[in-house]
C-alpha cells in the first residue's frame, strides 16, 4: 500500500479535500490569483514562481509520511479554491498539526473554511485516533482588517 492510498479524500457538503497532486499546480495558482494571495504578508501562498516548489515540497512530505496535503475543491463547481494539510504528523504519539491553509479571496469568510476544518478534525480524531491536534497559524504579527473594522488591532486590550 503506497503513501498516497493512505490519504483519503475528505468529502463534505460544500467541499472535498482532495489529496494534492502535481497536476493541481495550475488550478492552485489560479485559486491564489483570486486576490493575488502571494502578496499577503500574513501567510505563505505560492505565486507563479513558487507553485512548483510548493507542490513538490508538500508531495515530498507525504512521501516521507509527515504531511497529508490537500487541494480544497468546491463540490458545486469542481474548482480548486485553496489548500490545507495535516503536517508534523507523529503517529507514535498520535498527534499532528493542521496548517498551511489558504483560500481564494472569493471564498474567504464563507462556510468553506469551516467545513474544511471540520473534515480535518473529524478525520484526525475519529479516523486516525489522534489525541492531540494543533492548529498552526501565521507567526508574523499583522493587523487584521477584520479587527480594524471593529476599532481593534488584534492586540491584547490591556496594552
What would a concise description of this structure say?
The chain has 159 residues and is an alpha+beta fold. It has 4 helices and 6 strands, in the order E-E-H-H-E-E-E-H-E-H. 28% of the residues lie in helices and 25% in strands.
C-alpha end-to-end distance: 54 Å
Q: Walk across the major sheet and give the strand order.
A: 1-2-3-4-5-6
Rounded to an integer in angstroms, the radius of gyration calculated over CA atoms is 16 Å
**Overall morphology:** globular
Helical fraction: 25-40%
Number of helices: 4
**Total number of beta strands:** 6
Low-confidence stretches: 141-159
What does the main sheet amount to?
Answer: 6 strands, mixed
Query: What structural category arises from helix and sheet content?
Result: alpha+beta
Roughly what is the average pLDDT, rounded to an integer? 83
- The succession of helices and strands, N to C, reads EEHHEEEHEH
Strand content: 15-25%
Amino acid at each position: 500500500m503506497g503513501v498516497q492510498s493512505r490519504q483519503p479524500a475528505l468529502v463534505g457538503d460544500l467541499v472535498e479535500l482532495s489529496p494534492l497532486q502535481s497536476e493541481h499546480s495550475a488550478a492552485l495558482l489560479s485559486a491564489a490569483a483570486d486576490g493575488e494571495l502571494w502578496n499577503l504578508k500574513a501567510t505563505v501562498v505560492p505565486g507563479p514562481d513558487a507553485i512548483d516548489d510548493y507542490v513538490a515540497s508538500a508531495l515530498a512530505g507525504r512521501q516521507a509520511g509527515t504531511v497529508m496535503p490537500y487541494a480544497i475543491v468546491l463540490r458545486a463547481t469542481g474548482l480548486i479554491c485553496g489548500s490545507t494539510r495535516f503536517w508534523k504528523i507523529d503517529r507514535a504519539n498520535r498527534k499532528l498539526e493542521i496548517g498551511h491553509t489558504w483560500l481564494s479571496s472569493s471564498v474567504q469568510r464563507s462556510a468553506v473554511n469551516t467545513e474544511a476544518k471540520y473534515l480535518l478534525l473529524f478525520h484526525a480524531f475519529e479516523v486516525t485516533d489522534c489525541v492531540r491536534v494543533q492548529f498552526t497559524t501565521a507567526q508574523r504579527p499583522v493587523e487584521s482588517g477584520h479587527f480594524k473594522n471593529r476599532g481593534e488591532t488584534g492586540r491584547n486590550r490591556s496594552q
